[in-house]
Automatic annotation (TrEMBL):
Cofactor section: Mn(2+)
GO molecular function: ATP binding; metal ion binding; phosphoribosylamine-glycine ligase activity
Keyword ATP-binding annotated: yes
Residue ranges of every copy of the ATP-grasp domain listed in the record: 110-317
Alphabetized PANTHER family for the sequence: PHOSPHORIBOSYLAMINE--GLYCINE LIGASE, PHOSPHORIBOSYLAMINE--GLYCINE LIGASE, CHLOROPLASTIC
InterPro entries hit by this protein: ATP-grasp, ATP_grasp_subdomain_1, PreATP-grasp_dom_sf, PRibGlycinamid_synth_ATP-grasp, PRibGlycinamide_synth, PRibGlycinamide_synth_C-dom, PRibGlycinamide_synth_C_sf, PRibGlycinamide_synth_N
Pfam family, one: GARS_C
Keywords: ATP-binding, Ligase, Nucleotide-binding, Purine biosynthesis
Enzyme nomenclature, EC number: 6.3.4.13
Catalysed reactions, semicolon-separated: 5-phospho-beta-D-ribosylamine + glycine + ATP = N(1)-(5-phospho-beta-D-ribosyl)glycinamide + ADP + phosphate + H(+)
Biological processes annotated in GO: 'de novo' IMP biosynthetic process; purine nucleobase biosynthetic process
Name this protein carries in UniProt: Phosphoribosylamine--glycine ligase
Name of the gene encoding the protein in the UniProt record: purD
Length: 431
């Protein structure tokens, strides 16, 4: 198959790596990326086309004659890249702009979940500052009457910076006021108490399937302290979730959303990222994204043994129910992100990376998240620089292998969390 992957980061490198690894040896794919990165260039032809420019992307897909386009990040989807590709007759993994509002607008996502009967946090949309105190009062305590943090969310895409979870009422009120000033409204919702999991579901417009669950680490510091980031690490599968979690997510979340979007005339074709809190009352949706998670999908795809291209093509062409279900290794995978000095506040670019070949010789896969080349040197070019992906017979071994690989890589000032998957590997996450 001829496949074009849009994006620049570790997620897109991971998708290409999985496409290559699971291809039939007699029928290798022709892989392309736009714009790609130096790591992706080892697996695919990279084209300097802006993934956010529908005209340019449609022209490239036509020129290359691709059978499939996989859209990595959310911004081009929200801006309508998939609409343009589908209009040009190109099978595409990624929803149209209207369906991408499930990520692009938290209030739209709530409206769809309510209509579809999907379990999620109760929420109120406030359009003026005067209505915020009553909303904060409504969600100040849990069912047992105990005080819980407030959750205040900007409606639109905010790159992980739109959500405030706080026990400080003034901070909650202030964030709500900021959101109302910027967008005219704000979402205030019930606090969901419980460990979080990500389940990636493939929706072909009619049916839905789920991949094994993963967990990611959004905070910069060990012990989940410090500022939010794009994600500092991940692992899969999750030994601490009920064995039927993925099936339950399809039954109670993904399929009802697929049905509701189809009923509205906006069928969802692509990846529905279901962010869950596993509460005492059962799984509740924290958020939807409309693409694979980064770096959580790198952990999931590392264990895939069946052909990814066929699975994604079936997703894009409405034939998932006829396709063979995906299969996975029965071991574990762990991803540790190497970040640049100063990330997330002010990442320092330009540091030289060495030791990647040595790490890969030890059996890890190194995915490029933010790199560029200059005179044959590989340099850091973003906040999250590399993803070190390792498998192991169990999670403890997978994380040991990932950290052993990471220890061979050098980036001046570079840093990583030291506790990715540690609690889970020690069996300390319980429901
Ligand atoms: P979101 O952008 O909606 O994923 O929110 C970012 C993070 O805020 C989530 O990963 C959660 O850790 C936290 N969060 C969001 N909504 C809630 C909620 N209702 N209850 C508790 N934590 C939440
Ligand atoms: N890992 C979180 C995200 O991709 O949004």
């Amino acid at each position: 198959m001829k496949i074009l992957v849009l994006g620049t980061g570790g997620r897109e490198h991971g998708i290409l790596e999985a496409l290559r690894r699971t291809q039939h040896p007699d029928h290798p794919h022709e892989l392309f990326a736009a714009p790609g990165n130096p790591g992706m260039a080892r697996l695919a032809q990279c084209r300097a086309v802006d993934a956010g420019n529908p005209t340019a992307v449609v022209a490239l897909a036509g020129e290359l004659g691709v059978d499939l386009v996989v859209v990595g990040p959310e911004a081009p989807l929200v801006a309508g890249i998939a609409d343009a590709l589908r209009e040009a007759g190109v099978p595409t993994v990624g929803p149209d702009a209207e369906a991408a509002r499930l990520e692009g607008s938290k209030s739209f996502a709530k409206e769809v979940m309510t209509a579809a009967g999907v379990p999620t946090a109760e929420a109120r949309v406030c359009t003026d500052e005067d209505s915020v105190p009553a909303a904060l009062d409504a969600f100040a305590t849990n069912a047992a009457g105990e005080a819980v943090p407030w959750v205040v969310k900007a409606d639109g895409l905010a790159g992980g910076k739109g959500v405030v979870v706080t026990t400080d009422r003034e901070e909650a009120q202030r964030h709500a006021a900021d959101c109302i000033a910027k967008e005219g409204h704000v979402v205030v919702e019930e606090y969901l108490d419980g460990p979080e999991a990500s389940v990636f579901c493939l929706l072909d417009g009619t049916s839905a399937i789920a991949l094994p669950a993963a967990q990611d680490f959004k905070r910069a510091g060990d012990g989940d302290l410090g500022p939010n980031t794009g994600g500092m690490g991940a692992y899969s599968p999750l030994a601490w979730v009920p064995a039927d979690l993925e099936a339950e997510v399809v039954r109670t979340i993904a399929q009802p959303v697929a049905d509701e979007m189809a009923r509205r005339g906006n069928p969802f074709v692509g990846v529905l990222y279901v962010g869950l809190a596993l509460t005492a009352a059962g799984p509740r949706v924290v958020e939807f994204n409309v693409r694979f998670g980064d770096p959580d999908s790198q952990a999931v795809l590392a264990r895939l043994t069946s052909p990814l291209a066929e699975l994604l093509h079936a997703t894009a062409t409405g034939t998932l129910s006829d396709a063979a279900g995906p299969t996975f290794t029965d071991d574990a995978a762990c991803v540790v992100v190497l970040a640049a000095d100063g990330y997330p506040a002010a990442p320092v670019k330009g540091g030289q990376l060495t030791g990647i070949a040595e790490a890969e010789a030890r059996g890890v896969t190194v995915l490029h998240a933010g790199t560029r080349t200059e005179d044959d040197r590989l340099l850091a070019d973003g906040g999250r620089v590399l993803d070190v992906v390792a498998r192991g017979a169990d999670l403890a071994h997978a994380r040991e292998n990932a950290y052993a690989g990471l220890s061979l890589i050098d980036l001046p000032g570079g840093w990583a969390r030291t506790d990715i998957a540690a609690e889970a590997a020690a069996g300390r996450i319980t429901l």
